[in-house]
Amino acid sequence: MYLTIHDVAKRTGLTTYTLRYYAKEGLFDFVTRSSNKIGTRLFKESDLEFIYLIKCLKNAGLTIKEIKTFVDWTMAGDATISKRRAMFQERRTALQKQLAELQATLDVVDYKCWYYQVADDAGTCAVHDTLADDELPEKMRRVKHQLAAQHNFTAD
Question: Where is the signal peptide (predicted)?
């Protein structure tokens, strides 16, 4: 049984526009086409796994050109295994760095939520001038000191 582009869109969460764009860029060269004049793409269930992988690669920050290279390597077979592995290792390293940066950003946002909650409860931001370091929750103390060290300012 074959799936239409609309079926694939529903199953993958990608729009038909995105799927057609990916097809135009050569990302679906592995998909069977009908023999009619139009050459309609006939997606199989097994094609969905690869489409999910393409979606993952896009979400991981690869460009269409980089994804096309990966698709080409995959279609070339086992001779490109080391290239594909290296690509995933590089992407994992980049994503780990992004995650660390996002965690640091989230820590600051958490700090500011805490900061303004305390200030709101007291009716003034000046309440923070009266708090000793040991009165701050450990995580908030750490973030406050990191902010001060990075920017050489008080963390208002």
Answer: none
